[in-house]
Amino acid sequence: MTKKKWITFFLALLFAAVSLLTPATTYASAKKIEQGTVLKNIKKSGKLVVGTSADYPPLEFTASENGKTRYVGVDIELARQIAKDMGVKLVIKNMSFDSLLVALETGKVDMVISAMTPTAERKKSVAFSKIYYKPSGEFFLLNKKDRDKYDTISKLKGKTVGAQTGSIQYDEIQSQMKSSKAKGLGKINNLVLALQSGKVQAVLMEELTAKAYAQNNKSLVAVRSDIKDSQAGNAVAIAKGQNDLVAQVNKTINKVKKDKLVDKKFLPAAAKYMKTTQKNNTFAKYIPYFFKGIWYTIVITIFSVLIGIILGTLLALMRFSKNPILHWVAVCYIEFIRGTPQMVQILFVYFGIGYLISNLSAIVAGIIAIGLNSGAYVAEDIRSGIDSLPKGQMEAARCLGLSRVKAFRYVIIPQAIKNIWPALGNEFITLLKDSSLVSVIGVSELMYQTQLVQTSTYRGVLPLFIAMIIYFIMTFSLTRLLNYFEKRMKRND
C-alpha cells in the first residue's frame, strides 16, 4: 500500500471508532435521563447515592472516628434527612467539585449536594431543588500577615486569586476582578496550600468555609470581601426529567426550613465536629488512612500491571503481524493512547464507558484505564526488545520446524524480555506512581486518603510529605525486587 492509502486507512479506522462510540454513548445517555427512573432505582436498590466534594467545612467535610472516615457537615446532614424520609440508606461519593455534574449526568450519583448554586448555565444541564441554604456573603481567605494588604478587590489588582474550579466564586473572580488573575483548583485544601506557599494571594470562599479554615489554622484569616454576592443560595442538583425526585427532595427541604434544622441542628453538629477536630487533631489518628491508601495503591498497581503485560504483549505481536489490519489496529491504539493524557483516559473510562456499564465502580474503572494505558507502553518496550535481537534467531527457529507463533513464544519473547527488563521495570514503577491519578474519580488510594487527611487536619504540607515518603518506600522496594530478578536472569544466561 502507498503512503496515501495508509493515511486513508488510518483515518477510516479512527472514524469507525468514533462512529461506534457515538451512538452507544448517545443511547445510554438517553436511557439515563428517562423520566422518573432515578427515584424508582433508589427505591429498588434501597440506596441514595449522593455526590459531594467533602472539603468545604462546615457544609461538607470529613472527620475521623475510630480510624474511619465520617462525612459530616450541613449538606451531609441534609442528605441524611432526605435518605431518611425516603426510607433508604445514604451512600456518599466524594470527588472533585468540577466532576460532580458529570457524575450526575452519567448516572454515577443520584443527586449532588455540595454547596451548589443553581446558576442559569447549570440549569441547562441539570434540574435543581428549592434553595435550602443562603450564604451570608463572600470572604477572602488570606495569610494573616496580608490581612490589610489584600483585603479588597482594588488591592488585589495584578495579583492571583484562587477559587474552586467550577464554583460560583471562580466566576465572580473572572467577572468582578478582571484586573486579577483567577486560579482554579479542584480541591479547597489545595487552594489553601497554594495560599500558604504564596502561589495565590487570596482565596475567595463562602463566609462559613473561610472562617472554618481560619479558625483551624492560626496563620490564616478570613476577611469579608467587597465582591457583589451573586449567589442565589445552595440547592440540590438532580438529573433532568426526574420531577418526582425533585418533589421528594423539596418535601424534605420544606420540613428542614420550617423546623429551622439548618440553624438548630445541622450547623451545631458541624461545629461540634470541627471543635473536636481542633482538640484531637494529631496525625497518629490518621495512620489508618495512609494504610488504607497503601492497600488500594498496591491492588491497583498489581492488576494494572497484569492488564498492561497481557495487552502489551498482544499489541507487540500484532505490530509484527503480516496482517495489515492487525498491524495498523495496534499502531493506531498505541499512538492514540500515547498521544492523550492519562487523566483524560481515566475520566473517559469512568464517565464515558460508564454510560454503557452503569455499575462500573471507580476502582475497576481506574484499574482498566491505567492497565489500558500501560499496555501501549509495554507494547513498545517489547517491540524494541524484539527488534534488538538478531534476525537469525527467527530464521534458526523456523529452520528447526517451529511455526512463527511458536518461534515468538519459545525463542524470541524470552530473549526480548531479558533485554527490556529494565525498561519494563521503569514502566511498573511509573505505573505505581500514576495510580495517584485515579483519586480524581474517588478511588481511595494513597493520594485520595492524603487529601482526606489534609481536609480533616486543615494542614496541607505535612500530609503531602508523608505521602511522598510512602511512595518513595514503595518504589524503592519495587526497584530492589526488579533488580533481584534482573540479576537472576543474567545468571541464567
Notes on the structure:
The protein is α/β, with parallel strands linked by helices and 493 residues long. It has three domains: 33-134 and 233-280, Periplasmic binding protein-like II (D-Maltodextrin-Binding Protein, domain 2, 3-Layer(aba) Sandwich); 138-224, Periplasmic binding protein-like II (D-Maltodextrin-Binding Protein, domain 2, 3-Layer(aba) Sandwich), CATH 3.40.190.10; 286-491, MetI-like fold. Helices cover 60% and strands 13% of the residues. It has 18 helices and twelve strands. It has helices at residues 3-32, 37-45, 74-86, 100-105, 120-123, 168-176, 188-196, 207-216, 243-258, 261-279, 287-320, 324-338, 342-352, 362-387, 391-399, 404-434, 446-457, 461-491; strands spanning 47-52, 61-65, 68-72, 89-94, 111-116, 126-128, 138-143, 160-164, 181-185, 202-206, 220-224, 235-239. A hairpin with a 2-residue loop joins strand 2 (61-65) and strand 3. Helix 15 crosses helix 16 (404-434) and helix 17 (446-457) runs antiparallel to helix 18. The longest helix is centred in the middle third of the chain and has 34 residues, at 287-320. The protein is elongated, with a radius of gyration of 26 Å. The model is unreliable at 3-31 (pLDDT under 50). It is found in: Cell membrane. One of its GO terms (cellular component) is ATP-binding cassette (ABC) transporter complex. The chain crosses the membrane at residues 294-317, 347-372, 461-482. Its main location: membrane.
Walk me through the topology.
Layout: H1 3-32, H2 37-45, E1 47-52, E2 61-65, E3 68-72, H3 74-86, E4 89-94, H4 100-105, E5 111-116, H5 120-123, E6 126-128, E7 138-143, E8 160-164, H6 168-176, E9 181-185, H7 188-196, E10 202-206, H8 207-216, E11 220-224, E12 235-239, H9 243-258, H10 261-279, H11 287-320, H12 324-338, H13 342-352, H14 362-387, H15 391-399, H16 404-434, H17 446-457, H18 461-491
Helix pairs in contact: 3-9, 3-10, 11-12, 11-14, 11-16, 11-17, 12-14, 13-14, 14-16, 15-16, 16-18, 17-18
